[in-house]
Amino acid sequence: MFSELMPLIERRTITITVAALNEGHIRVNVVPAALAEDSKVNEKIGYSNKDKIAQVPESAIHALTTPLSLTGSPDEIDAQLAEQLKAFVDSHLALQQAVDRAKQEIAEAVKAVEDRDKNRSKSRMATATKPDEKSPDNKVEEPRPATDSLPLFEPKAAAEQP
């Protein structure tokens, strides 16, 4: 039993309870404990990146502490406990690896977004300090219209005079 649980025990504390039920049945519960680092998975995202980087869903984080509960006669529990524990530990470790991978990908995404934003601000600063072709210092004068040209319309008062 404990050899099947060992990969899970190495990662987090578990609580095992056994309770007697009616008609000679028992219930065995294996409950993984929550770790402080479980709730810190999404911390790196921060407020400014919440709209740019997806978070690990709370349901996935909560699933890390989902218990295994077996109910049956002592003989049934004896016969199936090792197999059930192995499947429970395997699925729990797969979920833990997925959360760890997501945590790493979040850290990389945050770094990429911060680098991109830093490069954008450097680029804007460089653009702002370069003299622009349209700035007053480098303004190219456009040719002026001829002053002796006729207006496109004549005022009404001037047109009515004899």
Provide structural commentary.
It is a single chain. The protein has one domain. The protein has 4 helices and 3 strands. It has helices at about 1-10, 60-65, 75-130, 155-160; strands spanning about 15-20, 25-30, 70. The protein has a 3-stranded antiparallel sheet, with helices on one face. Helix 1 (about 1-10) runs parallel beside helix 3 (about 75-130). The mean pLDDT is about 80.
Give the % helix.
Answer: 40-55%
Secondary structure class reads mainly alpha
Give the tally of structural domains: 1
> How would you sum up the global shape?
rod-shaped
Main sheet makeup: 3 strands, antiparallel
Radius of gyration, whole Å: 36 Å
Number of helices: 4
Which blocks of ≥5 consecutive residues have pLDDT under 50?
none
Order of helices and strands: HEEHEHH
Strand order, sheet with most strands: 1-2-3
Mean pLDDT: 79
How widely separated are the two ends?
A: 118 Å
* Percentage of β-strand residues: 5-15%
DSSP strand count: 3
Topology:
Layout: H1 2-11, E1 14-20, E2 26-32, H2 58-63, E3 68-72, H3 74-129, H4 156-160
Helix pairs in contact: 1-3
Q: Brief overview, please?
A:
By secondary structure, this protein is mainly alpha-helical. 48% of the residues lie in helices and 12% in strands.
Which terms summarize this structure?
single chain, 162 residues, mainly alpha, three-stranded antiparallel β-sheet, 48% helix, rod-shaped
